[in-house]
């Protein structure tokens, strides 16, 4: 019986590994195939990015045809290299804008254009090459930190990975770990905090070096030091990139070239922080409510 123990127990380990591997694959599959109905048009051509101007032209959208409309006539432009931030209460439709720009779904009517090209007419591969998303909740694969960063760019060198990690202010943390860049993370490895995971996501985005960046700010509250650090990284990250920030904290939108205030799928106000404060309407109300800390974060800010 003892002779059987070792092979059986290693079989157990192998079984668990295979099972975990299948779970990882399943997750990956879900991510990659979240919207299989969005397909390349037979005559799709590669997106020609020249700076990455984004234009939403009179966009209407519902998740299921005939269902409740989530976006109504949304119209805005992000000039190449500019930053636009979207704020509004929870459910206003902010994240939906990001999902449409990445073409997880197609618009019901209207158009989304990048440098004048309708995103439905270009190949999905070229579209997704031009855009990086720093999501609210970063998925880490059961792999090393190095591979988790490099996942954005197949064949990235160690130097490129480290440069991206330095810029995302996560390099010092990584090299303080006993196995540094070879440390396993994910469900079976080292658990990282929300802020650390977000920095890994920022490093991924920097390594990918796309023209367009979508930053879907984490809803979970960060302490003010962590928030300041993320803000610095964000300021660095958005330099010269066309950026859409889905904002949940107003402090991160002050420097945006334009702020869009959404309410029930419509843009109800737009302008710079100073212009919107001077106007004294919805944005000003959100801002002063947040400053006074009168409401829970999710009610106030933007989400
Ligand atoms: P939050 O700040 O809470 O993240 P949000 O402003 O980003 O909210 P969205 O996530 O864009 O809002 O959601 C807008 C509306 O669309 C909500 O009413 C939501 O319930 C609905 N919705 C979001 N995703 C789906 C989906 N996959 N299927 C159906 N309805 C959805």
Describe the structure.
This is ATP-binding cassette, subfamily B. It is a multi-pass membrane protein. Its main location: membrane. It is found in: Cell membrane. The chain has 303 residues and is of the alpha/beta class. 39% of the residues lie in helices and 18% in strands. The chain contains 11 helices and 10 strands. The strands form 2 sheets. The protein has a 6-stranded mixed sheet, sandwiched between helices. Strands 2-1-4-5 form a 4-stranded antiparallel sheet, with helices on one face. The radius of gyration is 21 Å and the shape is globular. The relative contact order is 0.15. It binds adenosine-5'-triphosphate. Adenosine-5'-triphosphate binds next to helix 2. The site of adenosine-5'-triphosphate has 11 residues, from helix 2.
Please describe the structure with a list of short key phrases separated by commas or semicolons.
single chain, 303 residues, alpha/beta, 6-stranded mixed β-sheet, 4-stranded antiparallel β-sheet, 11 helices, 10 strands, 39% helix, disordered C terminus, binds adenosine-5'-triphosphate
